[in-house]
Structure formats: C-alpha cells, structure tokens
Design goal:
This protein is of the alpha/beta class. It folds into four domains: about 170 residues, Rossmann fold, CATH 3.40.50.1390; about 120 residues, Putative Large Serine Recombinase, Chain B, Domain 2 (Hect, E3 ligase catalytic domain fold); about 120 residues, no CATH class; about 60 residues. Helix content is about 40%, strand content about 20%. The chain contains 15 helices and 18 strands. The strands form seven sheets. Strands 4-3-5-6 form a four-stranded parallel β-sheet, with helices on both faces. A hairpin with an 8-residue loop joins β16 and β17. α5 packs antiparallel against α6, α8 crosses α9 and α12 packs antiparallel against α13.
Length: about 550
Amino acid sequence: MGKRTRTLAATGRAQCAVEARWTKADLALLGELKRAEACLPDDAPRALLSVRLSVLTNDTTSPARQELDLRKLALERGCRVVGVASDLNVSATKVPPWKRKELGDWLNNRAPEFDEIHFWKLDRFVRRLTDLSAVIDWCLKYGKNLVSRNDSIDLTTTAGKNMATIIGGIAEIEATNTSTRVASLWDYAKTQNEWLVGKPAYGYETTEGEYGRVALVINPDAYRALHWCREAAMRAQPASARRMAKVLVRAGLCGPGLTTSTLLRRLRNPALMGYRVEEDKNGGVRRSKIVLGSTARPIRVADPIFTEDEFNSLQEALDRRGKKQPTRRPEGATKFLGILICSDCGSNMTVQRNRVKDRCYSYLRCGRCKAGGHGAPNPDEIYGKLVDDVLRVLGDEPVMTREYRQGAEARKEQQRLEQSVTYYMTGLEPGGRFTRTRFIKEQAEKTLDDLMKQLEAFDMESTKDRWVAVHNGKSFRAHWEEGGMEAMAADLLRVGVKCKITRTKVKGVRAPHIHMELMIPKDVRDRLTLKEDDFTEAS
C-alpha cells in the first residue's frame, strides 16, 4: 500500500504530496471491475484512462478514486481498459497533455492502441482552452473520442464538442485567476521584511518564529561551508572553485551533486547579507539582485552570514580568480553535443575556448578524464570528418515519414465480404434460394468463389489502426544538405548514433593523434523514420 508524505509549505499549511494510495476496499473493487471487464467481447472499444493531480488535499479526489470511477465509466460504455496514464504532481496549467510523461507517450507514440480517452473531470485533463482545442483537433484527426466522467463531453456529437469548448474556457479562466493570485502574493512578499513564501537562498532555512510565523535562520553547516570558501578564496594562493566544491563534498557539508557553477552562484548571491533578492534577468547569466523597499533601502529578512565588507571582498577575490571567457553563442559552443563522446570515460566532448594574449584557442575535451584526455585541438576538423562518415554510411538512406492509417473502412469492407459469403453459402444449401434453377445456382457459385478469393486476398493488417512508414522522395543526404549540421545533429541524437573519440598523445607534438569510431544502432533505419509532431503549433 502506498504512503502519503507530508510537506510543510512556507505559509505553514500542510498539504499532501501526491501518491496513489489503495485501500483494501479499493483493491477489492478494482478486482471486481477487472473481472467484469474480462467478459466484454473482443471487439469492444478500447479506453485509455487519464489520471492527473498536482496537489492532494482533503478537497481533491485521490488518484485511486479517479481510476476506479473511470473504470466504472468504461464498463458502462462497454469499453475495455487498455492502459492508465497516471501523471501525478503535474500541473495542467503548465504542462499540456502531450508533454506529460505517461499521457504524452500514449498520444505521441501509442495512438493505435486505444479508441477513447476517459478522464474524471475536464480540469483534471486540461486547464487551457488552447490545449483543449489542440487535443480535440488531434482526436478528430486520428478518430479518437474524449469522454469525461463528470462533464457532458463526447466528441461524437456536436453538442459534446461545444460543451467541451465551453467548459475548457471556464477552466482556463479559473487557472488565470489562480495565476493572478499567486503573482500578487509574490509581488506582495517582495516588499515585506518577513518571509512569507518561497524557497530561501542557500545558507538559510525556515523555522517557526514568534506567533507561529515563518522565519529565516542560518543553517550551521552552510555557514561553515560559505565562510571556509571565503577564506580559501582570500588566500595568497586562492583555491579554485572546482577545488572548493570537491572539499565541501568530501567533508559532507554539501551533496555529491554540487557543481562549480552552482557553488559560484551561491557565493555571489547578495542574499548572504540577509537581504531580500530577486532574479536578475539581464546579462544572460543567472544572478540575483537586491530588492529595494519603499524607502529605497534593501529589505532585511534574516541575520547576515557575511557583512557587506566581507561579501564585497569575496566578490573581488572571485573576480580576480575568474577567467574572461568568450561570449556564449546562442546556439551553443559545441556542435554534435551528445554524439561525440570520449572513448575512455564515455562522457560528452565539449568545446572549451581559452584566450591567451588576445588569441582564442578551441579544444574538444571531455569532462572526466585527467587534463581533458589531451583534447582534440581542431573541433571544426572533427565535425567535418564526422559529417563525411555519416553521409558515407547513411546519406543514401531514404527519408521515411510515419503516417497514421485507420482501419475503420477496412473493417467495414471485411465485414461486408464476410456477410456476403455467409449470405451466398446459406442460399446454396439444399432448399436454399439459389438452388431453384441450374442457372441461378451456377451464378451464385461463381459469385461466392469471387467473394472468397477477395476475402482470402484481403490484408488483415489494414483492419487495424497502425503507423506506416512512407517514403517522401528524398534521401537523408538531400535532407541534411537542406537543414545543415543542425538537422544532421538532431537526427543523429534522436536515433542514438555516437562517435567515439580516441586521443593518442604524440611525443614532442602539442596536438594528439585523433581516431574516430562511428557507432550506429542495428535498427537505425527504423529509428530514422521521421515522426510528425501534431502539437508543434500548440506548444
């Protein structure tokens, strides 16, 4: 049986983290519903159950209860349940159905496996009118139906479509009002010297203060870690941020996931002086800035970890130690990221640029090997060699596009042929309607033979909803010539193609010898099939 865990919100209100909890009574009812479902005919419509919840409170319906209610609904409609897409701790406002982990997989990849989507209530499914409109268009395109347990929604009727649109608009208005209230709370909290909501900066933690209010206090371990980092940065031979992170992790003062960038961001946060801060969105670098109150002075919300003099001297020390890296490229410094990997440690090869005497040097290095595994000094040369190898191996492969084929028409044709065969076979039995004269009997037998040949030649796969691969007339060489390196990199990353870089140090030569090994999955042709994204515009 699952357990419900409790977390204390900043406002002091206890809420339950979402977990599906099944009682003995729930499990007994689930067994009864499954046994009843087993009695349905083989050709019964197939239902996918969508269960979603962001926060579980006393006023919400638990995931287990949602699933049981939806199984009852499916049984009432004569549908067989083929799956349950359970997305818990997911906001319907922020995450549309096609981007949720479980429901998104069903919508994008498993459409042939179900006929209807059942959900408990529309706001459990979507909260934006645009999202609802996109899902309705998808359902109409693929021949699916939406059914709600507590709303009059059924896409097989015009009234049901209109009702879905109206209810979706109401849900969006409710979500907008909630967003407005939350934004108003954050704006108000920024002006107060009390901690009302939000996650405190590193170095502080929340506690219950006077009159039950939430207050910020200094975390002792974080205090020790921050002051040690300041002392290490102020030495005559200052420690690097990488060295600081390793020492803190080894000492147990920070978790094993601490990175250099995270540590530097913590050390540069003016919240360490006890002031309220907000994100500084200018400059393209994650930084925080002090919030000024109505008197144009900083708002103090906690005791300082560093005095202003200590904080400023720390920033000067970090500035002296920091390197002036070249401006970041919007598209990223490394091309074919995730494809080029180190043969020794398996980590990604990334481009690092160093500036020496106004000259910029680029290297492909891995993140785990000592000294970057000697590096690859000419990234563009590596890129060119990779492109040549990929074109040689995969350039002549045809571009196949995945298309959805519905089997409804084929099923009708199969049913017509079977009924016709039965009709003529019955008529040719002794005393049947086709045995009255020899001519009528011969014509009936001839027609029956034709029908049986058509039925034998009938493609049974065409009666199923399925994906088929269709050639669009291009080769991948032409496709990549049109899209450039970016299109090739996206396709190689999608299908799982890797290229191992092996570097052999050459004595007396600065640049090592580079060997490249292209690794292609055996099912690369199936993986290369392009899948149309039905929700691109909606996203």
